[in-house]
Amino acid sequence: MVVEQIRTPLTLGFSPCPNDTFIFHALVHGLATELGLDLAPPILADVETLNEWALQGMLDVTKLSFHALGHVLDDYVLLGSGSALGRGCGPLLIAKKTITRSRLPELRIAIPGRLTTAAMLLQMYEPRCKHLVYMSFDEIMPALARGDVDAGVIIHESRFTYQKEGFVVHQDLGVWWEESSGCPIPLGGIVARRSLGRNLIGLLEKGIRESVQRAFKDQNASREYIGLHAQEMDEQVSRDHIGLYVNDFSVDLGREGRHAVEVFFNRGQQAGILPDSSLSDPFLNI
Hints:
Layout: E1 12-14, H1 18-35, E2 43-44, H2 47-55, E3 61-65, H3 66-69, E4 76-78, E5 84-86, E6 92-95, E7 109-111, H4 117-125, E8 132-134, H5 140-146, E9 151-154, E10 168-172, H6 173-181, E11 185-193, H7 198-217, H8 223-230, H9 235-245, H10 248-251, H11 254-270
Parallel strand pairs: 1-2, 1-3, 7-8, 7-9
Antiparallel strand pairs: 3-11, 4-11, 5-11, 6-9, 6-10
């Protein structure tokens, strides 16, 4: 590995979704300075944009989908804190009406980006699906309602609103993953450039862990920051969003979380979705 000259301040990117702004609030509002971290103002972008940027190595520290991480393990290492990983929180494959699995290969299916974990789960669940339509996660249900696509894989707050729109679930891909693997589903994680070195990466991991812990300790502290970036999202949906995606694994992946990540990468490589480098150790073992 070629060690780069460390750039300061460090560039940081995460999504405007409530789970990320909840997690990072303390870190970007004083905690980083307390810990001696020099961070540039964060760049907030949707996760698929962050995934694409990771392929280009644009940011020092970034949120990205575990699917995308499988493609950049030579350059980035997964931090043990800040992840969205758990049970009962996976993507949902929905449609206007009940569909059979045998029909999936002929259907136009919207997915929220080619490098999202949702896309990889669909490919593992039904490899014969070929008519995939990539679009932003918030465009999927409107496209489905218009008839532009026949089915869609939804994530984020769409999980809380699809029933009101009259859609039905064909398959909870998270449940499928849990039943077939025995593991919680790894959705997204926080990574840092390997070239930053063990000491700095360890400090970043510590900072994010403390940021999550502070968020849990005083959940009102981040409310304004979350609301600023959640835009028109209903406050209850925002709270439900945080409750679904931020948990003990977000504080520390632990043995179970690390095992789930390794299983995810192994199965992705076996399915031909991830490159051989996905079998590299995703952790720096700080």
